[in-house]
Amino acid sequence: MSFLGFDHVQLAMPVGGEPDARGYYVGLLGMTEDPKPPTMAARGGCWFRAGGVALHLGAEEDFRPARKAHPAVSVDDLDGLARRLGEQGRAVRWSDEVPGVRRFHTDDPFGNRLEFVAG
Q: N or C end of the chain, less CB within 10 A?
């Protein structure tokens, strides 16, 4: 058996957060929304995709943001993304803790930690 890659990563969001999720993940990050199967769509949440990255957000009644656990996404224009986030008032926290790796952390509209790495 071999691991082939991630099919998707799931984060949580508060119930009713779909408009904010779409504004951030589609409007700001440029991802596209994948339709959820009807039986799953009834539970709320959103699915997003860009390139080989699939991110699912599930709605939780007792939502708590993931402040430590996080997905790390490799991007081809790290500086451009950091600039775009900053222009929209989103905090960008650069980190040099991993030698030779350019990366930063930011938070989605719900406080979930996201990491972006130069690809």
A: N
Buried residues in 2-26 as b, exposed as e (16+ CB within 10 A): eeeeeeeeebbbbeebbebbbebbe
pLDDT over 90 (residue 73): yes
Say if 4 falls within a structural domain.
no
Domain at 90, CATH number? 3.10.180.10
User: Could you list the residue range(s) of the whole structural domain that residue 79 is in?
Assistant: 9-118
Q: Which residue has the tokens 């929304």?
A: 33
Dist CA 33 CA 104 (whole Å): 24
Residue 4 has pLDDT above 90, yes or no: no
Would you say residue 2 lies in a domain?
Answer: no
Looking at every residue in the chain, the average pLDDT score rounds to: 96
Is 80 among the domain residues? Answer: yes
Contacts 24+ apart (CB under 8 A), 40-49: 44/15, 44/16, 44/18, 45/13, 45/18, 46/18, 46/21, 46/22, 47/8, 48/21
